[in-house]
Structure formats: C-alpha cells, structure tokens
C-alpha cells in the first residue's frame, strides 16, 4: 500500500489507493500574516518532513496552500513532494482560464506572493476572504468550494507515483552539505 | 465502475489501435476505471497546418459528442494538439482532458521551465497555440524537434535504433542548451520512447497520454470538471450535423 505523508492538515484524509498520515508540524505558527512568520513556518515543515523517505513514505504533500517548506523539502527528499498551493493553482487552469483563491485573512499576503512567483497574476482574479468571480475557485482553507488543495495534492501525488514522475532536480537541487541534524535541532527548539 | 472514453485522432485498424491502448501499461491506474479507445471516423493526414486543425477538431468532436449519453464519465483526447477539447468541453458536462494543456501545467508543478521534445518542426504550431492560450510561453524553454518523420499508425515500431538516440540527443540539448527542468513528449505517438528517455535523461519526462488518464481519475474522484464560464454551452449539441459530416467522408484517405 502506498504511504503518503500530509503535513499541515488536521482533518484526516482518505484515498482508496493509499494510506495517508496527516501530521501537524511542531511549532507551526498560527499566524502567518507577516513574512516575519514565514521562515519559521518553512523550518517547521522542513523539520517535520525531512525524514519522511526514511520513515517509509512514498510521497509528501504540504497540505497548506501556502506551501511553507515545500521547496526546501523538494531539495532534500528523493520522493515526490507536492505543495498544495502550487499544485492547486496550475491544476485550476486545467479546468478554466481564471481562478480565485478564497482564504482566511492571515494567508492573503502569502498567497498573493506565490501567485506572483508562479507567474500567474494574469490568471488570478482575486485572493480574499470573499468568494470572487472566476472560472475556478480554490478554497485555501479547504472549505466549501471547487478545489480543495489538500485532497487534490494527495490525488496528484498518487498520479505522479503511478507515472514514475517527481519534481525536477534541476529546479530543486540537492544541497552540497545537507544539514538535517541542524534542522532537526532547530525544529525541536520551536515552541 | 467508471468509464473513460479515449478518442484516438486518426481512423485506424485494430492492430494499430492496440499500439495506442498500450499507453495504459505505462501508468498505475488503480481500480475502478475502464478506458475505451475509439478512433475518429475522419481526420487530416497529419497535424501540420491550420487546415488540418479544423478537420481534427471536427473529427474529435464527432467522436466524443455523445460520450455523456453513452454513459462515459470522462473523455481523454489522445493528441497533444488538444484538438476538439474546447469544443467537447462546451458540449459536455463530464471532464474532458487534453494532454497538451494538462502536460504543460503539470510540468510547472514539477519545475520552473519545460521543453517540448517533438518529432519534427511541423508540429510546432500545435504547442504555440496552447502556450499562447495559457499565457505561459515564457515558461517554455524550447520546442525542440528531433528531425524525425512521425508515423501516426505504426508509431515507432521497428525504428527504435534510429529514433531513440535522436530523441535522446535532442532531449539532452533541451536540458543543457535550453535550460529545461522538465521535458514533455510532444506527441502521444512518442509513448514507446518514454521509458528509454526517462531512464537516460536527468529530468522528469512527461508521457502525456498516460498523464491524461491519471488526471481523468483525479477529476472523477474529486468531482471536478471544466468551468462552464470558460466553456459556454451551445444551445443544442450539433450531434446530427456531426454524424452527417462523418457519414459523408468516412473512409476517405
């Protein structure tokens, strides 16, 4: 049975093809409204997931649409890592030409930054706590709209595994000097 | 049991249809979904001009227009051109998956820039159209042809010694010269080379046909379909008209 680790999601997820373990990273900040919180969030997710391949997982999903730590995990793990936010935005464009993101107020700034990084500003009609007009609505908190990023990330992870695909090592090169022990110690120090 | 219709974009006999169906062996699909492969009744000879695009759109539309009424739960189109996808999405409520659009967006889930590795340069316009529609041309590192003439019936069989090294050489240039993080095979007819290329190239290589099957499963499991606002429905699906067109030309070379 395929085993998938989902980080940053409290609600249990199920899929007929896989055993899914949901884990909240220790020390994950509740408030991510400011970039000042983001480095800690990156660290918390990285520390929680960096050992996932050794734990026997086949893939990792960062279930929070903010994708904290997802790029860093991609650089250190030999298994597919899916950032639910990135995946949901590109996936949304398979269904329509524009998308909007509905989220809580603390995530708005972060998600706008992601959209700019992904080069998708022209496709996004809005990021807000309100439902915006668009072809496709992404519900970053997973409630009540067309695309729920965390379950989508699990399905896409299974798809990648079924196709023998993973993220590109050219985009996410491995560090010359892995610092897993330092990251583990930093993660333990988070409160 | 869910049923997915895979529309093959050329008329063909059972033996050649099996070569298309062989794409199912390249992906773990899980249980509970059946894939039926259906060739179109008419098509252009190749996909090298805008004339061909019109004929391809019509042939694929005709082949899939009744899919929902026939009990299918999703449609996959077995061509990177995505011919007929927009038209079928307008007419159907079930998911319609075009490998071109989906492969490009999936590539950007895996890396920052992708190349399209293709058989020959005459298919370039197919990719340019989708890249322009998506507004993602700046994320395409290159469209790199291998200088090979495709055969949409027998595919690559018997030509492996010539074709595989040529594709590998062009794929290496996609990475080393063009800066691709991910490579997309430029045609579903290239699927027989996927295993070889994936083994020898140091970046993810997307096999667009099998990818479309997995994304059909994702859409079905999560209850997703294309947005009606992006694909407005016609007042009435032109099934009778399409059938009449096919009846008029079926069997013509």
Head-to-tail CA distance between termini of chain B:
37 Å
DSSP summary, beta strand count of chain B? 8
Sequence stretches where pLDDT stays below 50 over 5 or more residues of chain A: none
Oligomer: heterodimer
Biggest beta sheet summary of chain B: 4 strands, parallel
Class per helix and strand makeup of chain B: alpha/beta
Q: What's the order of the H and E elements of chain A?
A: EEHEHEHEHEEHH
User: Could you tell me the mean pLDDT of chain A?
Assistant: 93
- The proportion of strand residues of chain B reads 5-15%
The helix fraction of chain B, in percent, is 40-55%
Number of helices of chain B: 9
Beta percentage of chain A is: 15-25%
Most extensive interface, residues per chain? A-B, 42 and 48 residues
* Main beta sheet of chain A: 4 strands, parallel
How are the strands ordered across the major sheet of chain A? 2-1-3-4
Mean pLDDT of chain B: 94
Q: What's the SSE pattern of chain B? A: EHEHEHEHEHEHEHEHH
Q: Which structural class is indicated by helix and strand composition of chain A? A: alpha/beta
Radius of gyration of chain B using CA atoms only = 17 Å
- What's the end-to-end separation of chain A, in Å? 34 Å
Report helical residue fraction of chain A: 25-40%
Descriptive keywords:
heterodimer, A: 191 residues, alpha/beta, three-stranded parallel sheet, 6 helices, 7 strands, globular, B: 253 residues, four-stranded parallel sheet, 9 helices
Explain this structure to me?
- The complex is a heterodimer of chains A (about 190) and B (about 250).
- Chain A has about 190 residues and is α/β, with parallel strands linked by helices.
- Chain A contains 6 helices and 7 strands.
- In chain A, the strands form 2 sheets. In chain A, strands 2-1-3-4 form a 4-stranded parallel beta sheet, sandwiched between helices. Chain A has a 3-stranded parallel beta sheet with strand order 6-5-7.
- The mean pLDDT of chain A is about 95.
- Chain B has about 250 residues and is α/β, with parallel strands linked by helices.
- In chain B, the strands form 2 sheets. Chain B has a 4-stranded parallel beta sheet with strand order 2-1-3-4, with helices on both faces.
- Chain B is built from 9 helices and 8 strands.
- In chain B, about 40% of the residues lie in helices and about 15% in strands.
- The chains are: A alpha/beta (about 190), B alpha/beta (about 250).
- At the A-B interface, α3 and α5 of A face α4 and α8 of B.
């Amino acid at each position: 049975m395929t085993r998938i680790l989902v980080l940053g999601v409290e609600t249990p997820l199920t899929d007929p093809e896989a055993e899914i373990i949901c884990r909240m990273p220790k020390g994950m900040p509740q408030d991510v409204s400011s970039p000042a919180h983001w480095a800690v969030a990156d660290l918390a997710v990285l520390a929680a997931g960096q050992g996932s391949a050794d734990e026997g997982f086949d893939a990792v999903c960062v279930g929070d649409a903010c994708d904290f730590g997802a790029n860093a995990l991609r650089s250190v793990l030999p298994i597919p890592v899916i950032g639910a936010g990135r995946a949901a935005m590109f996936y949304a464009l398979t269904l329509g030409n524009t998308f909007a993101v509905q989220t809580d107020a603390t995530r708005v700034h972060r998600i706008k930054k992601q959209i700019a990084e992904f080069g998708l500003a022209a496709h996004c009609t809005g990021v807000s706590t309100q439902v915006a007009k668009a072809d496709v609505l992404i519900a970053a908190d997973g409630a009540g709209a067309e695309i729920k990023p965390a379950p989508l990330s699990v399905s896409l992870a299974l798809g990648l595994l079924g196709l023998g695909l993973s993220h590109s090592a050219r985009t996410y090169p491995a560090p010359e000097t892995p610092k897993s022990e330092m990251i583990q110690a930093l993660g333990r120090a988070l409160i | 049991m869910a049923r997915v219709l895979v529309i093959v974009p050329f008329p063909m006999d059972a033996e050649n249809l099996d070569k298309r169906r062989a794409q199912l062996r390249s992906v773990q699909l899980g249980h509970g979904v059946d894939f039926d492969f259906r060739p179109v009744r008419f098509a252009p000879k190749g996909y090298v001009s805008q004339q061909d695009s019109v004929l391809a759109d019509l042939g694929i539309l005709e082949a899939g227009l009744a899919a929902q009424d026939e009990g299918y739960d999703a449609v996959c189109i077995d061509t990177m051109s995505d011919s007929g996808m927009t038209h079928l999405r307008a007419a159907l409520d079930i998911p319609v998956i075009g490998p071109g659009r989906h492969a490009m967006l999936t590539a950007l889930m895996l890396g920052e820039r992708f190349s399209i590795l293709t058989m020959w340069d005459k298919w370039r316009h197919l990719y340019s159209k989708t890249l322009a529609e998506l507004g993602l041309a700046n994320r395409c590192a290159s469209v790199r042809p291998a200088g090979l003439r495709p055969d949409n019936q027998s595919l690559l069989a018997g030509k492996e010694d010539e074709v595989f090294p040529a594709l590998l050489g062009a794929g290496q240039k996609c990475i080393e010269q063009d800066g691709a993080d991910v490579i997309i095979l430029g045609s579903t007819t290239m699927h027989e080379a996927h295993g070889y290329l994936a083994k020898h190239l140091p970046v993810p290589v997307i096999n667009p046909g099998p990818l479309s099957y997995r994304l059909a499963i994702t859409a079905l499991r999560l209850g997703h379909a294309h947005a009606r606002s992006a694909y407005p429905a016609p007042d009435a699906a032109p099934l009778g008209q399409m059938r009449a067109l096919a009846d008029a030309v079926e069997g013509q070379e």
